Amino acid sequence: MRYRITEMEAGLWGLGLFAIVTLIVFSGRLQTADAEGALLVNGYDLGSLGTSLMQLFTNYGRELVWGLLVLVMLLFGNRNTKIMALELGVLFLVGILVGDISKILLPRPRPFPTVPLTLRIPNESDSSYPSGHALIVSIGAAFCLARFQRKIVAGLLTIEAGIVCYSRVYLGVHY
Questions:
Q1: Please, where are the H alpha helices in the chain?
Q2: Domain boundaries, the chain
Q3: pLDDT in tens, 89-135
Q4: pTM score, two decimals?
């Protein structure tokens, strides 16, 4: 008989993983790898069309896509879908809270002052870690993969989340 992980266990594992990654980031052990990875992604020019697409994903791939998803689930879903929409909305709020508190307690500068990146969007001045974009879209993607019965929809949303995360590094505002 297969053991099925509960949502609470998955959440605790996710929180534990976030704590471990945070410790690794602030230990400084990966700073060189972070900088080299950022230079590699940022240094590959996608051309004007690719850069415009990355800007679209950065500007609209978090609030618009995921906010609309929750809204559509609430407006057009059955009872179970509406409950899932509320759960996802609460997860987003918790993610925003954890991310904002982390940025205040553990500020990490953005890479462009010290790493010679091409900044392709206006300078952002808040802390680099954790990326609010990456945090929210990752929460959404993990939720969809775990809870959606239509795996093709979950897969497409996960791809969208991956592009949002990539876009933040490509545009020069994150490691």
A1: 7-27, 31-43, 47-60, 63-76, 79-105, 132-147, 151-170
A2: 34-170
A3: 999 999 999 999 989 998 888 887 778 888 888 877 888 888 889 99
A4: 0.87
